[in-house]
Amino acid sequence: MIRIAPQQGGWLEVICGPMFSGKSEEMIRRLRRAEIAGQRVVIFKPRIDDRYDASDIVSHAGIRMRAVPVSSVGELTARTHGFDVVGIDEVQFFEPSIAGAALELADRGARVIAAGLDRDFRRLPFGPMPELLAHAEFVDKLQAVCHRCGGPATTTQRLVDGRPAPYSGETVLVGSAEQYEARCRGCHEPGADAALAAA
Ligand code: ADP
Ligand code: MG
Ligand code: ZN
Q1: 26 counts as catalytic
Q2: pLDDT beneath 50, residues of the chain
Q3: Whose CA is nearest to atom 15 of ligand 1?
Q4: How far is CA 106 from CA 131, 138, 175, 177, in A?
Q5: Domains of the chain
Q6: Please, is 175 exposed, middle or buried when counting C-beta atoms within 10 Å of its C-beta (0-12, 13-18, 19+)?
Q7: Which of 20, 41, 99, 109 could form a disulfide with 85 if both were Cys (CB 3.0 to 4.6 A apart)?
Q8: How big is the CA angle at 45 (ends 40 and 51), to the nearest 5 degrees?
Q9: 143 alpha carbon to ligand 1 midpoint, in Å?
Q10: Predicted pLDDT at 97
Q11: What is the pLDDT of residues 70-93, one digit of tens each?
Q12: What is the pLDDT of residue 195?
């Protein structure tokens, strides 16, 4: 595949895939290279995701990079001034207006790199991802390794107490153990109420 970045102006890159597919790792790799090229780089993440560290993005393999936690799309936009490259990790958690904000940044000349889950554990498109994917100049859909069979995993399996999580209800009861796995299409197990959710 030949990839040629525009000579002038900005653009939008989206990195998507299930959990453990290396989205954060790939984001960090791209931003480090931009830093080496002397570009001014910033990376944002939604404040709700404070896994591991409040102000770093950390990959599952422990690779990390300083990130600015923001509570809203407005706050993100307000803090982008003067940067050539704007990374947004866990972009699926932002409000729908993140897509328009990303495009505006690109229109103003920034290279915008958005990384996030394309689908939730029910395999439904996640929040603003469809819009971002449709508008992006460049899209990469990464695969993880299926926890079950070792094949290429494209879905995220949510487990509660070791069983496929029900599709209805986001909250996990106190005292029960929640866990996520990468799974391939064949190994993905729908929640017991999946038929209800699809109806
Ligand atoms: P993402 O941001 O997509 O959740 P990360 O970049 O945080 O992914 O983590 C990717 C890293 O996670 C891999 O390089 C690997 O070291 C580790 N890893 C753990 N479990 C898996 C898995 N099932 N498939 C692929 N990588 C995995
Ligand atoms: Mg990640
Ligand atoms: Zn599998």
Answers
A1: no
A2: none
A3: 61
A4: 15, 12, 45, 41
A5: 11-142 (3.40.50.300), 152-198 (3.30.60.20)
A6: exposed
A7: 41
A8: 130
A9: 9
A10: 98
A11: 999 999 999 999 999 999 999 999
A12: 73
